[in-house]
Design goal:
There is one protein chain. This protein has 169 residues and is an alpha+beta fold. It is built from 3 helices and 8 strands. The protein has a 6-stranded antiparallel sheet with strand order 3-2-5-8-7-6, with helices on one face. A hairpin with a 3-residue loop joins strand 7 and strand 8. The longest helix has 14 residues.
């Protein structure tokens, strides 16, 4: 793998907690299933993210639309490889399912209940979902199951599915 190029799946899983942990809407939501999002990420032959397309964007809750937009912002500056194919354009589609549960509060000096602590991720691999998570000081736990739905790799020099800029508004 060329220097500075990341695998797309782990980068996505790592980006989710960083992107949404400051959004207090997740803290205020009731426990249980909190939403699902299908997200397609498009990478050009240079490894740049050229598209981030949530499916059925009009049907998404505001926090899920913000999740897509913020993940796009976190990933925008990186360089990525689709599958094990640096130098190839392509697209990967993921299903992200959010669940909120209650756990044991985390004792930490100066931590407010809505402060996100204990971040982590396990990247998805074909056939096995990954997860992205964090826990608030109150004990509320955010967990996103991240499942690879499909992957398309284009020939070198092919720009994949268009050269548009990432847009997840």
């Amino acid at each position: 793998m060329p220097r500075g190029v990341q695998h797309l799946a782990p980068a996505l899983a790592r980006a989710i907690p960083a992107a949404v942990s400051g959004d207090k809407a997740w803290f205020r939501m009731p426990l249980g299933e909190a939403g699902e999002l299908t997200l397609t990420l498009v990478v050009d032959a240079k490894g740049k993210l050229t598209g981030l397309e949530p499916a059925k964007k009009a049907e998404l809750s505001k926090p899920m639309r913000r999740l897509a937009r913020r993940v796009s912002a976190v990933l925008h500056a990186g360089r990525f490889a689709v599958a094990e194919q640096p130098g190839h354009a392509g697209r990967e589609t993921y299903r992200i399912t959010i669940r909120l549960t209650e756990g044991k509060p985390i004792e930490q000096d100066n931590a407010e209940p809505h402060h996100a602590l204990e971040f982590g991720y396990d990247p998805p691999i074909p056939g096995t979902p990954g997860r992205a998570y964090f826990t608030y000081a109150s004990g509320k736990h955010f967990e996103a199951a991240v499942t690879l739905v499909s992957r398309e790799v284009s020939e070198e020099g092919d720009e994949g599915a268009g050269g548009k800029q990432p847009d997840a508004r």
